[in-house]
Amino acid sequence: MSTSAKKATSSTQPPNEQELRLQANQFSSELKAIASKIGELELQLDEHNLVIKSMTPMPEDRKCFRLINGVLVERSVKEVLPALKTNRDGISSTITQLTSQYKKRDQEFSDFQKLHHIRIASA
């Protein structure tokens, strides 16, 4: 029997308990990974906001130091502040994208659970 014939035969059969468990675990691990990344980015966003708040009242010609790829570089507030704001905006948009991705994936998982009558037992 060819592999395509095997796939056609196996796709018509309902998935067994082990396959369902694997799929549920995969959904769960993906959701945990996305949530972890969102949390990490929210911490970075808070740090960026704190630094921006601290640097905003400073004179533009004041020296400041910025860590770029592990190298401490001397710059002025005028040079660093716009870069920080750009990074903050990028982080914020990434958080928004990941949040929508999380919600979509969570809905898919919920639909999967309803379709296969799965209840997740709490330990």
Radius of gyration: 24 Å
Number of strands: 2
| Bulk shape | rod-shaped
What is the end-to-end distance? 43 Å
Order of helices and strands: HHEEH
Number of helices: 3
* Portion of residues within helices: over 70%
The major beta sheet can be summarized as: 2 strands, antiparallel
Q: Proportion of β residues? A: 5-15%
Q: Structural class of the secondary structure composition?
A: mainly alpha
Unreliable sequence segments:
1-10
Major beta sheet, strand line-up: 1-2
**Global mean pLDDT:** 90
What does this structure look like?
- This protein has helices at residues 3-12, 17-55, 77-116, and strands spanning 63-68, 71-76.
- The protein is mainly alpha-helical and 123 residues long.
- Strands 1-2 form a two-stranded antiparallel ribbon.
- β1 (63-68) and β2 form a beta hairpin.
- α2 packs antiparallel against α3 (77-116).
- Mean pLDDT is 90; it is low at 1-10.
Write the layout of secondary structure elements.
Blueprint: H1 3-12, H2 17-55, E1 63-68, E2 71-76, H3 77-116
Antiparallel strand pairs: 1-2
Which features would summarize this protein structure in a list?
mainly alpha, 123 residues
Summarize the model shown.
This protein is mainly alpha-helical and 123 residues long. It is built from 3 helices and 2 strands.
